[in-house]
Amino acid sequence: MAAFPKDFLWGAATAAYQVEGAHDEDGKGLSIWDVFSHLPGTTYQGTNGDVAVDHYHRMQEDVALMAEMGLQSYRFSISWPRLLPNGRGEVNEAGVKFYSDLIDALLAHNIVPMITLYHWDLPQALQDEGGWEVRSTAEAFEEYARLCYARFGSRVKLWATFNETIVFIGHGYITGSHPPSVKDPARAIQACHQVFIAHAMAVKAFREMNIDGQIGFVNVLQPHTPLTDSPEDTAASELADAIHTHWLYDPVLKGTYPAELVTQTQALWGVPRFAPGDDELLRKYRCDFIGLNYYRRETVTANPGETLTQSNHSGEKNSGGEFGFKGLFKFVRNPNGVYTDWDWEIWPQGLTDGIMTIKERYGDIPIYITENGLGAKDPIVDGEIVDQPRIDYLRMHIDALEKAIALGADVRGYYPWSFIDLLSWLNGYKKQYGFVYVDHQQNLARKRKKSFYWYKEAINSHGNVR
Question: Where does the record place a coiled coil (predicted)?
Answer without folding.
Answer: none
